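Researcher: Next sequence.
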Amino acid sequence: MKISVTPAKLWRTIASICIVSLQSGVSLTELMGIRLEGIVPAGILPLCLTMMLFLGPLVQLAVDSPKGLLFEIRLKCNLRSLTLCVRDLKWLRNHVVAPLTEELVFRACMLPVLVPCTGPTAAIFVCPLFFGVAHFHHISEQLRSGQNSLGDILTAAVFQFAYTYVFGIYSAFIFIRTGHMLAPVLCHSFCNSMGFPDFSRALEHPQRPVILLCYQLGVALFLLFLLPLMDPFFYGTTPICGLSLRPRAVCS
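Model: Next structure:
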């Protein structure tokens, strides 16, 4: 999920949230989810929940890895691999810059502006519309490249809008429930590293019954633990919910 966030767009959005901050009496950084209260669970629990959803792809990676998933994780976490990643501009864009800037603009800045107008529940579904539409710039890039037909480009754009919209709902939900920008940033980075699940490979996999069972189990665990792990009890008072005159169940 990679988009272009220009400095002008960023500053206009921050200016809007500054106005909201002054009107509500809550500090700008707290409204944007930059705070210390509950930061440890915010950095762990939402990421664990997201990994549950990707249980199928993770098991598939473990099965396909000749030396096991733990070996691959240790290999990628050593100092040499980390140094190579930091020097790779594409890796930095996908795993650091894009998650950080996108969550800053579309969650940390946009949600505090929307919540006073729509309420937290509606904002969760409205905010991702902007996030999804922002990805349409890929259409012009692909048209200029001339590698695909217009039909293929539009089909890919609609598909990308659909899954970025769904992810945007999830990310907005995480931000409102936790009150932390860190939580959606880490989940966003993890999803970028995993990519969209390759269901066709799962269906053709030699261990298909096990892989498909893990896909189903992952979805079941995700739905089972969604509300318990996103309970605001773990994260303290969420400042953004104080912007709504009538906070909904999504805030409690």
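Model: The chain is about 75% helix and 0% strand. The mean pLDDT is 83.
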